[in-house]
Amino acid sequence: MRIIIYGAGAVGSIIGGYLHHSKHEVVLVCSKEHADAIRTGGLRITGVQGNYEIRMSAVTGIEQVSFGSDDAVFLTMKTFDTEEALDRLARVAPKVPVVCFQNAVRNEEFAASRFARVYGGIVFFGAKYLEPGIVNHTSENSLGIGLYPRGLDSTVDALNDVLTRAGFSVTAYPNIMAVKWSKLFRNLNNALFAITGLSVLAGIKYEQSRFMMADTLEEALRVVKAEGIEIVPLAGHQPPEKMIESLRKPGERSFDVPDDEEAALRPSTWQDLYLKRGRTEVEYLNGEIVRLGRKHGIPTPLNSLMVNIVSKMARERLSPGAYTIRQLRDTLGEGEKG
Fold first, then answer.
1. Please, which pLDDT band fits residue 334 given cuts at 50, 70 and 90?
2. How far is the C-alpha of 315 from the C-alpha of 55, rounded, in Å?
3. For all residues of the chain together, what is the average pLDDT?
4. 257-313 pLDDT, tens per residue?
């Protein structure tokens, strides 16, 4: 089974690079700058699993791939690019199995409207796009996969085997979307890290930011429960209620926050603002909570604030760190909490 990584940025390049390093056939479909750098000097991966220079195939459009009957496509682009990408893919490979290794909970729905065989994918590792041809693997190495909307099959088994041999810790989930909702909860505070400029570890270390993270998740949990959405925790991780409880424990955490930027955990929303891309996935993360809140008449002031501020920062090409926690609390009229 050849793997086509469609929309290969940081996450897709790391998945594809490790697959190729394990002697599996892979093609990256990525930006012209990234593809040119890979074709010229190879793909460089730095980080927690060592440094690699990998010579592999990279193209700039899905139309440049000659598809065979045993191919599978991993979608790794941002959600706002998914539908256009799927339309292009459907024109050249209408029967290919599609795996959505993406954040948010709408990509599988988009894919299922165009393809018969769709799979949900979970990415639980840190990655940064440093420059064309170079990506940084910052933490973890876990993936999840399951048939959409639910179930397992022989393709899940085959991909589990392929990805495990590439060095990933892979879990097969029979109810993949319930797990993707759990992952969405973990992504809701990406906006806070981007707005304040805090790394993930810095946000967790300090009580002020940690309490705001808890408030954001608690607000989300109310509307998700009202909708009746099932949530299944990622393997080895806490359900939302336990996450909130842990974040609310008072005091400063004892661990150190790395000074080295390469070692800092930076979520994708932070990277979108840092690279001044002009847009982020916040509408598909916190925006999902805001839409459910409107549907059920439940206020979502914190998630709404995250959507509005991140969207404004993206439009105006503002760098991460434009606001402090206190400024966010003051905007909500909660200065006494900050």
1. low
2. 36
3. 95
4. 988 887 788 999 999 999 999 999 999 999 999 999 999 999 999 999 999 999 999
The length of the chain, given as a count of residues: 338
Enclosing H/E stretch for 204:
helix 200-205
Give me the domains of the chain, ranges plus CATH numbers. 3-174 (3.40.50.720), 181-337 (1.10.1040.10)
Q: Are strands 43-47 and 98-101 parallel, antiparallel or unpaired?
A: unpaired
3-state secondary structure of 28: strand
Instruction: Copy the structure tokens of residue 117.
Output: 């065989």
Scan for tokens 């990234």, then name that residue: 34
8 Å CB contact between 155 and 71: no
* Contacts within 8 Å (CB) and 24+ apart, 40-43: 40/133, 41/133, 42/133, 43/13, 43/16, 43/17, 43/133, 43/134, 43/135
In Å, how far are 89, 288, 303, 328 from 208, measured between CA atoms? 45, 25, 17, 11
The contacts of residue 89 (CB under 8 Å, 6+ apart) are 6, 62, 73, 96, 98, 114
